[in-house]
Design brief:
Blueprint lengths: L1 H36 L6 H6 L1 E4 L2 E3 L2 E3 L2 E3 L15 H19 L2 H4 L10 H26 L5 H23 L2 H36 L7 H25 L4 H4 L4 H28 L5 H18 L19 H15 L18 H6 L1 H10 L13 H17 L1
Antiparallel strand pairs: 1-4, 2-3
Helix pairs in contact: 1-3, 1-8, 1-10, 3-7, 5-6, 5-7, 6-7, 6-10, 7-8, 8-10, 10-11, 12-15, 14-15
Length: about 400
Amino acid sequence: MLTYALDWANLLLRWAHVIVAIAWIGSSFYFVWLDNTLTRPTDKALLDKGVGGELWAVHGGGFYNPQKYQGAPPRLPENLHWFYWESYSTWLTGFALFTVLYLFNAGTFLIDKSVHDWSPVAAIHTALAFLAGFWLVYDLICRTLGRGPKGDALVGAAVFAVIVFASWLACQLFAGRAAFLLVGAMIATTMSANVFFWIIPGQRKVVAAMKAGQPVDPVHGLRGKQRSVHNTYFTLPVLFAMLSNHYGWAYSHPHNWLVLVLIMLAGALIRQFFVARHKTEVAGKPAPWGWAVAGVAVLLAVAVWLAPAPAARPTGAEAGTAPVSKAVLFEQAQAVVAQRCAMCHNAQLANKGVRLDSAEAIQGHAQAIYQQAVVLKAMPMNNATQITEDERALLGRWYQATQQAN
């Protein structure tokens, strides 16, 4: 019953997490687009009110005219919407899901003893340290290097270096699947912390100063803008890290940390294309396709690098041997499944409702075995049973033989 309850918690938390994340990312992308596509108004009345940019848009049969004030409007409206619960809800549901799935089952999901053999308690504490530690280092970098004309470049280079190191370290300590997710979670934690510690407090200070009739310090807007821009570049890398648990060929690679860094870099480059494109559209300049091309080039390079080697053709004496019969292939595959898979998929412990402890069950789940163990390499979880590449290849040959027979 506990496993069943945890499955329901996993489902509901994952569902809620995706919903609120869509709301947060959507509003974030919208405001970045809005900031970069606003044009200076021509109406003198708007200029006199302090409007620095406006936009006319049509959507859903209605016309909209959002306006952005330089600094602050002369008078605050009664109804002022604050965008922060989208961020907070995303982090809260994400951390709850991480707790239920990874921290509660640290021995299974966080630890791969072939990577680093340590206790679940130590792994849990270290995972939490990743979340807090990256935020502290990132915040220090922003506050110390983010000033001056080259501040943005220095912060970007320093943060990238820290992410590269954190990715490498996570992949030396945790199971590959957990390492990828943890790097994504630490960046996502920083994104939400930017909202909680800098963006919203700064906005509250602006509102308080306006209500008190005091001049507004522009530094709050500058700091909020800086952290908001950082968040938009973090988004696509975080999304890949969160989705990576479906792709064992990525997180199980011997140089998985580099795979993670390169794909996240590609996401940031592609995001830069969209951010820059908004500005070029307003300026009437050609779209900056170089950023998109660079991002796609990185993805293609990783795809070529990770491509499986073609199966070796038999030579010499091997070429003259008779092909293995389907019956023999199944016997060999069944032996692999019995040794590597059945311990978690049997009558007593049928994970995900799957049993692989009989010939009929193995035949019935042939496609799932092929997908999970051969194509995705997601199973066995964290390769707990130490299945070899030759054994995965054998399962692949057996499955292909069954397909030919059908």
